[in-house]
Amino acid sequence: MNDTRLPELSPADESAVRGLYHRVLEGWNMGDGSAFAGPFATDGEAVGPDGVRYVGRSGIAAEFGRILAEREPAEYVARVRRVRPLAPGAALLDAVAGMVPPDAVDIDPALNSLHTVIAVNRGAGWRIALLQQTPAGYGSRPDLAAALTAELRALVARTPGPVG
Questions:
Q1: Is the CB of residue 64 less than 8 Å from the CB of residue 56?
Q2: Rounded CA gap, 92 and 82, in Å?
Q3: Helix, strand, coil percentages, rounded to 5, for the chain
Q4: Which bin fits 43, alpha (ψ -120 to 50), beta or left (φ > 0)?
Q5: CA distances in angstroms from 65 to 19, 21, 69, 137, listed in the order given
Q6: Other CB atoms within 10 Å distance of the CB of residue 63
Q7: H helices of the chain, where?
Q8: With bands split at pLDDT 50, 70 and 90, how would you rate the model's confidence at 8?
Q9: pLDDT of residue 159
Q10: pTM for this one?
C-alpha cells in the first residue's frame, strides 16, 4: 500500500513561509522593489493580477522597482488563510488581499485578490518560487465578493499592513 499522506509542516517552517509573504507585502507597502523581491528564490517568479509574468529575483526587483517608482502604491492588507505542505521542502500559502489606495481610508473592492505562494526550501532556507495574484471579482457570486470585502475592511479598521 502506498502512503500518500503529505509530510507535516513544522510550526517553524509555517512561520517562515508566512514571513516570506509578509515581507513581500511590506516591500510593496514601502514602495521598495528590492524589498518586495528579496524573499524570492533567485529563479522565482511572480504573476501579477494582469497576467504579466516576472522572472528571477533580479527581474522582479527591477520591474517592481520601476512600477513602484512610477506612482505611489496602494497599501496591501492581507490575511493568510492557510499554509500547507506539498512535499518535503515545498509548501503552499493561500491568502486574500485588498488594497487601500493612496489618500483613501478604505479598500477598493475592485483590487481585491487571491494570492497563492509556492515556497521552497532547498536546504538554505525558505524562498518564494512563485507568487500568483488572481483578481477576486467573483463575477457570478456577488455574495462571495461582498464577504471578502467585509473581511478585508475589518483588517483595515484594525491595523494597516499584512495580517495573519
A1: no
A2: 8
A3: 35, 35, 30
A4: alpha
A5: 21, 18, 6, 27
A6: 19
A7: 11-30, 33-37, 57-70, 142-158
A8: confident
A9: 54
A10: 0.90
